[in-house]
Amino acid sequence: MDLSGNYIYLVVVMMTNIVLVYPASVAGYPGPCPVKAPCSCDTNTVTCKSLSQAEFPTFTKVNASWDCWTVVMRFNYNIKRIPARGFGNLPICSLTIDQNGFDAIEDGALAGSEHCLYSVFMRSNNFTELPNEIARMSNIGMLSINGNPITKLPEKMSFASTLELFDIGSPEMTSWPYPIQTFKAVWSLTFHDMPMPDLPLNAFDGLENTLTTLSFSSTHMRFIPKAVKKLRKVASLSITNNIELSSEGVADDAFDGLDSLNEILIINSSITQVPNFSKNPLLAHMTLAESPLSQWSEDTLPDQPLIEEVDFSNTEFESIPSAVRHIKSLSSIAFDKSKVSKIGPNDFVGLQKLRQLSFDTVPLSNISIDAFNATHLLQSLNLDHTKISEFPRAIERLPALRFISLYNITIECSCAKLGWLKTWIGIRQLQVFDGQCRNVRMLLAEFIHNELPKCQ
């Protein structure tokens, strides 16, 4: 088959292992670039980055075989506005104009893109309002405008029925953007940098049946808003960098009503105890990190918890909380940068599905030989930067262990200390990452591979 000529070829591998090659309908590739240097093109992507000029680059509509273009403009701080017909009637499907000096988009700048513009990312510019040119686009599905000193949204936006993902927020936005209630298809909302310790009770009216992902970042939140409880379809809730949020601001019923909640992230807060999730039976992923968390009561768990992953990194836990033993579904636990100093014989009792366990950078110095009696499926154990002084014999109870990480750990490598590994069922599959021998100049993995077989 002749593969020469100006074509891009699509290769399809069939289930029968027969490889069929079809010419894709991109005759004439590579196509002409619609803008001159210092901008550049890569197939249908135009990039204008770090331009020193004050004038907007000149775009020209060109004949190309694809339907629309991707335009990326970043770090052009001397250009203040996008002029009318600025993109030369070029049909654009994705527009990224993050981190520029733009403060205006003139009417008509996006002429030719009305039918195809789907995603617009215009974060960190100087817009004080959503440009009319964006508001009149009728097919936008993704829109990010956070980091602009925008104080409010227009009452009418042509994309209200198509928008699915929306990021908004700035320190200047001190009142709630009620026009979000007109978004009929939105399933993901993210709010950034809004100085709002609480939200209006009707903040999400009209979104109860569509919103599934909700995020708050650096919003100075002091309470879990009661408005959130109405969102019965929300599966993922993220609250990050709200240091004002303390356990006193998390009511016992704060998450009641979130019947679909599957994932919760509370990162960089001031909470000291795990909130009450007893009314969230579908919760599977819990990240409560970078907070002074030190208490977790089993009373906060559903009757039959389905939690699979727990991340308590950079918290104040000094030991494994007893609530862990009540979650038979756990497959992954992380206590990185916590204050856990020992693992007792009963800390992981009943966790027969546990596969990953991480204690990176903790003062852990003692692991009971019976610590892993019930965790027969454990495959990965991270002990990087801990204070253990011996290779943990507790792993002898882990026939499925594949990886153990020991960065910045030194142990005695000798037949007396490690000879038991020769008869351990998992030795052939085990991969040891780092770990130094303190009595001989070699890595622990080298000793296990080369010297251990010689032990009598």
Can you tell me about this structure?
The protein is mostly beta strands and about 450 residues long. It has a domain of about 120 residues: Ribonuclease Inhibitor (Leucine-rich repeat, LRR (right-handed beta-alpha superhelix)). It is about 5% helix and about 20% strand. The protein is built from three helices and 26 strands. The protein has an 18-stranded mixed beta sheet, with no helix packed on it. The radius of gyration is 28 Å and the shape is globular. The N terminus is likely disordered.
Give the termini separation: 64 Å
Question: What is the number of beta strands?
Answer: 26
- What CATH calls the topology of the domain at 341-456 is Leucine-rich repeat, LRR (right-handed beta-alpha superhelix)
Percent of residues in helical segments? Answer: under 10%
**Overall body shape:** globular
Mean pLDDT across the residues is 91
- The fraction of residues in strands falls at 15-25%
Short description:
The protein is mainly β and 456 residues long. It has helices spanning 132-135, 415-418, 444-451, and strands at residues 9-13, 19-23, 40-42, 45-49, 69-74, 81-82, 92-96, 104-105, 119-121, 142-144, 165-168, 188-192, 213-217, 236-240, 263-267, 285-289, 309-311, 332-334, 342-343, 356-358, 366-367, 380-382, 403-405, 410-411, 431-433, 436-437. The strands form 5 sheets. It has an 18-stranded mixed sheet, with no helix packed on it.
